[in-house]
Amino acid sequence: MKARGRLHHLTSIGRGRVWLILLASAALLLGPVWAAPAAATPDPMGLVCTEQPLDATPTFDLETTTGYVQTPDGNSLFMWGFKPSGGGFQMPGPVLCVNEDDVVTVNLINNLDEASSIVFPGQVGVTDSDLTPGLFTGEADPLGGTVTYTFTAGEPGTYLYESGTNVGKQIQMGLYGALVVRPALGAAYAYDDAATQFDPDREFIVILNEVDPDLHRAVELGQAYDVTAFHPGYWQVNGRSFPDTIAENGASWLPTQPYGALVRVEPYNASTNPDPALIRYLNAGMANHPFHPHGNHLRVIARDGRLLRGGGGQDTSFEGFTRTIGSGQTYDLLFKWTVVDAWIDPGGDPEPVTIPGLQNLVFKDGVTFYSGDAELGEQGPFPVGVTSYNDCGEFYFPWHSHALFEFTNFDEGFGGLATLLRVDPPGGCP
């Protein structure tokens, strides 16, 4: 079984299964220059929190605005979005990070030509300035109207924030973002439970959604928006479609899409790398998405901002493979990549196995992310003319929608709702 899993990884590359080789468009990992979204230059990978002054009551000033996002097939999509006040349009909205029991204030300025608002699913006791009551919450009037929301972040976890006005239109147009509430136990824990400890340098956010370009074009031209005609053609992770999802945070060629989705880890080691990564799944779309961490299992520890615990407090977390994330749902998952085969242990005695020869490997357009060697941390030779984007013998696994029509960019595969897991050798790349 181990050998089969390992050979699948290698021959997926060797047979030209292009999800690892399509990355040709990716000079993406060849040291790109990144531009800061709104405030400071972000870390090149992982979750990017909107900065708040230390020891201050968290207050976020957001504006609705319009803009464009790019797709890997050369298209651009008209979108709406929440932007930080004074910043530029971005998709999705800023990631709002607060601490448990913080009193949170969100001020909204609405620059659209229709009323808009924000709701905070999972938060209790949200109040608003109630200047214009709406169906779900107080709304900001068109073209400059304002509204203020206040709530106490009483439960740690991962949440969406999104428009509460004409939701079939406004959330689809892009009015959504992520809210992260950190527990009182500390920033190295997902919840107030020691079993949820993770590596704070390995925290990743995966926000799923889908886009119907025809409806967006209709809004851009001032035409009628008919939600019953909804038929998505693009699928996104963090506002990007694959392969753009694996570009670093703040990639310069994606100025309105600042958040990357590449998950990057090192093998588990009880002494040097004991803590798992934390993956935060959110679905801001209207469709349910079966997200598939190809070749890997993750431990599901929470859903919709609530830790999985049974009566008496027993741990009811579980290991899962493909996870269907319902519209509006969030999940928190812990992930360790464990070395289980001696053949990937640098310096160890490799397990006897037949590795496909170069003559049996297919390189799409003469490029690959395969290292050319079966060992993690090792690189081998390639035929003349083949370019490798592998930095130091790292492994890649595709994480993607298992509804394969979502694994495309306007019906052209592979693309869409997908990203990669990158496993670096122990200690990282030199």
Low-confidence runs: 1-40
Largest sheet: 7 strands, mixed
CATH topology: Immunoglobulin-like
How large a portion of the residues is in β-strands, by DSSP E? 25-35%
N-end to C-end Cα span: 32 Å
Q: How big is the Rg?
A: 22 Å
Helix content: under 10%
Could you say what the CATH architecture is?
Sandwich
Q: What is the overall pLDDT average? A: 87
Give the count of helical stretches. Answer: 3
Overall, the morphology is: globular
The figure for the number of domains is: 1
| Structural category | mainly beta
Strand segment tally: 24
Could you give the order of the helices and strands?
Answer: HEEEEEEEEEHEEHEEEEEEEEEEEEE
The oligomeric state is single chain
Corresponding CATH superfamily: Cupredoxins -  blue copper proteins
CATH classification, class level:
Mainly Beta
Spell out the key features of this protein.
five-stranded mixed beta sheet, mainly beta, 430 residues, disordered N terminus, 7% helix, Immunoglobulin-like, 3 helices
Structure description:
The protein has 430 residues and is mostly beta strands. It has a single domain, classed as Sandwich (Immunoglobulin-like). It contains three helices and 24 strands. It has helices spanning 2-14, 167-173, 213-220; strands at residues 59-70, 76-84, 96-99, 103-110, 127-128, 132-133, 138-139, 145-152, 157-162, 176-182, 203-211, 234-237, 263-265, 277-283, 289-293, 298-303, 306-307, 318-320, 323-325, 330-335, 367-368, 387-388, 395-401, 418-423. Strands 11, 12, 14, 16, 17, 18 and 20 form a seven-stranded mixed sheet that branches. Strand 1 and strand 2 (76-84) form a beta hairpin. The radius of gyration is 22 Å and the shape is globular. The two termini are 32 Å apart. Mean pLDDT is 87; it is low at 1-40.
